[in-house]
Each structure stands twice: as C-alpha cells, then as structure tokens.
Amino acid sequence: MASIIVLIVPVTVFAESDTSTLTGSVGATMTISSPETITLPSLVPGSTVESTSQYVTISTNTSGWSLIVSENSGSNDGKMEKSGGITMTYPVYVKGGELSNYTSLTSPVTLKNATGGPCANQNIEGIFFQQQVAANEAPGTYSMTIIFTANPGGY
C-alpha cells in the first residue's frame, strides 16, 4: 500500500501597497463684454465732443484683474482715421472706472485695477470718450477700433 504524506508548511503572505496622488487644476476664467459701437456726436470743427456713458462687464474667478483700453491702429497715435489714411489732428481721450481725468489713447490706459475675490457680471460704468476737432479738420467719417482688455490675476 502506498502512503501519502502531506507536509503543511506555514506561509506568511505580506500585503503590498502603493500610493497615488490625485490632482486637478482649476484654470483662470474671464469674460468681457463691451459695446459693439460707440458713436460720438456730430464732429463740428473747432469743438470738443464727448460720447455718452459706456460700460464694460467682466466676470472672472481670479482674485484680481485690470481693465485696459487701447486703440488698434498699429501706430498707437490714438487718432481716428478716415479712408485714405487721413487722421484727425488730435487723439481720442478716455476716462472712466477709476480714472476720473481724460487721458489720451496714445498708449494703453488702465481704467480699473480690482483686488479681492471673483466677480460675476461686474459693470465698469461711466466710461467716456472725448474728441477735440480742429478748426481745419478735413470733412469725412473717421473711426478707430477700441480694444478693451481684461487681464486676470492683477496688473
């Protein structure tokens, strides 16, 4: 007769573990809404005209931001232009937001620096544009592209 011998050997099983880090990022978001068209009153030679009050709306999840207005002619002279490349004698001026005095658009102009928490649909009101018209200004329709820029994270 054959015998079977069973040998029982205790085996210790060690558990293995590892760790993982779960990460996620929330990016800065910002939206800006500005007037599609800003119309100055009739440009009468020898006068200074001012636009009606305008506003820009900003929403952001950043803790600080700035609102800057500039013009897009490429020459940064701040002057409105008509066809044929003829510019007005004087640059356009702007004020509003935290800027109470008119400043020429010959370079970008900061209208507001905001600190604190996020904002939703914040209106920056009381933005005005001003144009001095020289007595000898050439007749025609003048225009310029105005750029409102909201910079997240401060200024």
What distinguishing features does this structure have?
155 residues; mainly beta; Immunoglobulin-like; six-stranded antiparallel sheet; three-stranded antiparallel sheet; 0% helix; rod-shaped
Textual characterization of the structure:
The chain is mostly beta strands and 155 residues long. The chain has a single domain, classed as Immunoglobulin-like. The protein has no helices and eleven strands. Strands 1, 2, 3, 7, 8 and 10 form a six-stranded antiparallel beta sheet that branches. The radius of gyration is 31 Å and the shape is rod-shaped.
| Domains, number | 1
Number of helices: 0
Tell me what portion of residues adopts beta-strand conformation. Answer: 35-45%
Query: Based on DSSP secondary structure assignment, what is the total number of beta strands?
Result: 11
Distance from first to last alpha carbon: 95 Å
- Derived from helix and strand composition plus strand pairing, the structural class reads mainly beta
**What is the chain-wise order of helices and strands?**
EEEEEEEEEEE
- Helical content band: under 10%
Shape: rod-shaped
